[in-house]
Amino acid sequence: MTHPLIVGVNTAMFDGIDQETTFRIVHETGFNIIELAYNQGYVGNLDPALFGDENAARVKALFDKYRLRSVALGCTINLAGEDAVAQFSKRISFASKIGATYLNTCTAKRGDYDRLVHNLRALAPEAADHGCVICVENGGDPDYDAFSVAQEGRQLLEDVGHDAVAFNFDAGNMVSLRPDVAPIEHGFEMLGNMRHCHIKDIRTQNGEFFFTAIGRGQLDYRPLLPALAQHNIPCSLEIPLRMHRQANTMPLRGANPVPVEQSREVLLQSRQALETMLGRALG
């Protein structure tokens, strides 16, 4: 039996573009799942009101208008921060309001590991009570190097000790932070604990890292896609066009939003590439 690949769009590629336009373009390019990118520092400073009832109602109205739904919420913060539990609790509540199950988040610095574990132990039961799973993501820069490869991630899950914490795999992050690892092949080592996956492609230029349409960079997802489908692991195309990683792997956000038509074209190119790799149309 052929299993469908569940693919949505992470809104980081529309950083700085209004929600209505973003949702419309996602719908017009043939996708019906959207992952809001509310990642602190990666898409600017986030207004706490984003996690309130008013924005949740606005998002749900746009879901209805453009026939979209949410599976995951992008919500990276420093999970070892002093206020991390309070801040992430708001994100758990918001995710449940818009129907998102998976909260994708990078972790913390390796030196803050004990606080990271402490905070995840506090947050995991709350996530479970809301029907959510905290999906810790292998980091792409030194601010989030507490989990960068499978062995570190498995140790983190063991130390937290709760089923409401799992993996969100990101091969693109591995290219910058762990160039010693074959990223796509390494994804198979994470499958057993993976509940969500970010699909991004990346090209290296003058030692820096730039994000591009799927199939236009250096990552070949062909081996991994059937396994994701077989394991019923939902994915999002995470292509943060406004941001790139510098040679030291730290992210640098561009001064201006990327033109909407460029984002539309990247989505269409990525959809075509995935369908070619799979040998069938996406649902």
Keywords:
single chain; 8-stranded parallel β-barrel; 18% strand; 283 residues; isomerase; alpha/beta; two-stranded antiparallel sheet; Xyl_isomerase-like_TIM-brl; TIM Barrel
Question: What this model shows, in words?
Answer:
It contains nine helices and twelve strands. By secondary structure, the protein is α/β, with parallel strands linked by helices. The protein has a single domain, classed as TIM Barrel (Alpha-Beta Barrel). The chain has an eight-stranded parallel barrel with strand order 1-2-3-4-5-6-7-10, surrounded by five helices. A two-stranded antiparallel sheet has the order 8-9. It has a two-stranded antiparallel ribbon with strand order 11-12. β1 (7-10), α1 and β2 form a beta-alpha-beta unit. α1 (19-28) packs parallel to α2 (53-66), α3 runs parallel beside α4 and α6 packs across α7. The longest helix has 19 residues, at 260-278. It is globular and about 45 Å long. The two termini are 16 Å apart. The mean pLDDT is 95.
Question: Helices and strands in order, then pairings?
Answer:
Blueprint: E1 7-10, H1 19-28, E2 34-37, H2 53-66, E3 72-74, H3 84-98, E4 102-105, H4 113-129, E5 133-137, H5 150-160, E6 165-170, H6 171-177, H7 183-190, E7 194-199, E8 201-205, E9 208-212, H8 224-230, E10 235-237, E11 243-245, E12 251-253, H9 260-278
Parallel strand pairs: 1-2, 1-10, 2-3, 3-4, 4-5, 5-6, 6-7, 7-10
Antiparallel strand pairs: 8-9, 11-12
Helix pairs in contact: 1-2, 3-4, 6-7
Organism: Sodalis ligni
InterPro entries: IolE/XylAMocC-like, Xyl_isomerase-like_sf, Xyl_isomerase-like_TIM-brl
Protein name: Sugar phosphate isomerase/epimerase
